[in-house]
Amino acid sequence: MQHATNISQDKSRTTAIIYLVITSILWSLGGVMIKWVEWNPFAIAGMRSVFASLLLWAVIRRPKFTWSKEQILCAAAYAATVIIFVAANKMTTAANAILLQYTAPIYVALFGFVVLKEKTTRMDWFTIFIVLAGMALFFADNLDTKGFWGNILSVIGGITYATVILLMRKQKEGGSIDAILLGNILTALIGIPFMLQSVPSLPTMFTLSLMGIIQLGLPYILFALALKSVTALDAALIPVIEPILNPVWVFFMIGEVPGNWALIGGVIVLTAITGRCVYAATTTKPVETEPN
Fold first, then answer.
1. CA-wise closest residue to 181 among 212, 150, 154
2. Is residue 267 part of a domain?
3. Residue 73 domain boundaries
4. Which end of the chain is more exposed for a tag (fewer CB within 10 A), N or C?
5. Is residue 147 part of a domain?
6. Is residue 165 part of a domain?
7. Taking 60 as the threshold, does the pLDDT of residue 180 lie above it?
8. How many C-beta neighbours within 10 Å does residue 197 have?
9. pLDDT (tens digit, 9 = 90+) per residue, 198-250?
């Protein structure tokens, strides 16, 4: 019986890892899809969230909108994150937009104690210092004013995304996915005035539907399912695929090349965050469970 249980758990974990890989790949398509669409960033974010909301609502069926402080703030932070990401992709390179947003775990470490009462260690502060150094390199390339402000937006996006992570973790009993649905609805409402300014072509609308369903809605569903059967290390490391693949798709599809200093900064950021995750996983003592 125990052997059968272990086999079942192994299969569940393998399936969950596959879900995380698929999730990361689908998320990584965001940069190139946003570059393809010629429309107002608020309109793009809004219409993408319309399709994402329809998918999420169909899957959840009966969402639980508790209107708690955590749920509302999480939804607002999510809306800010997806809008900022779209706008940043229009103002700077896709590599800069995703890599700077991927600094979110650092802000989680900074504010984790305030929100979740989790202590920030010396390793956390050392990692923060390295990441800040890496972030500074993004601004060393010869960027125009538009690119500079795109980088600033991406940094802010990292903070808002960290807020989403913290508030999702704070909510219990699966309420986080409902907050994401609420965030998509809020994003759609914000985008309505901008969507009404012009009518996109049918090919553009098709791309937007793919963005909402395939690149945004479906990955969040898979991510929620995967979290039930993987370790924290899996959940932290496997999504690194996203910021690595994001600029690759843009390079091959559009030919956009990030600056040399941005590439170096990106490697530093990813290495620091990955190293921190590995260190945390290898130094944390396993939790002992009482025998039944």
1. 212
2. yes
3. 10-283
4. C
5. yes
6. yes
7. yes
8. 10
9. 988 999 999 999 999 999 999 988 887 887 776 545 665 677 778 778 888 88
CB-based contacts of 122-126 (< 8 A; 24+ apart in sequence): 123/276, 123/279, 123/280, 124/276
3-state secondary structure the chain: CHHHHHHHHHHHHHHHHHHHHHHHHHHHCHHHHHHHCCCCHHHHHHHHHHHHHHHHHHHHCCCCCCCCHHHHHHHHHHHHHHHHHHHHHHHCCHHHHHHHHCCHHHHHHHHHHHHHCCCCCHHHHHHHHHHHHHHHHCCCCCCCHHHHHHHHHHHHHHHHHHHHHHHHHHCCCCHHHHHHHHHHHHHHHHHHHHHCCCCCCHHHHHHHHHHHHHHHHHHHHHHHHHCCCCCHHHHHHHHHHHHHHHHHHHHHHHCCCCCHHHHHHHHHHHHHHHHHHHHHHHHCCCCCCCCC
Structural domains in the chain (count): 1
CA angle 7, 12, 14 (to 5 degrees): 95
The model's pTM is 0.78
User: Does residue 193 lie within any of the structural domains?
Assistant: yes
Query: For residue range 97-127, what is the model confidence (pLDDT) as tens digits?
Result: 887 887 777 777 777 666 666 666 777 778 7
Nearby residues of 252 by Cβ (< 8 Å), 6 or more positions away: none
Mean pLDDT of the chain: 81
- CA–CA distance, 18 with 169 (Å, rounded to integer): 22
Query: Which of 4, 6, 38, 40 lies closest to 195 in space, CA to CA?
Result: 40
Torsions phi, psi for 287 (to 5 deg)? -80, 125
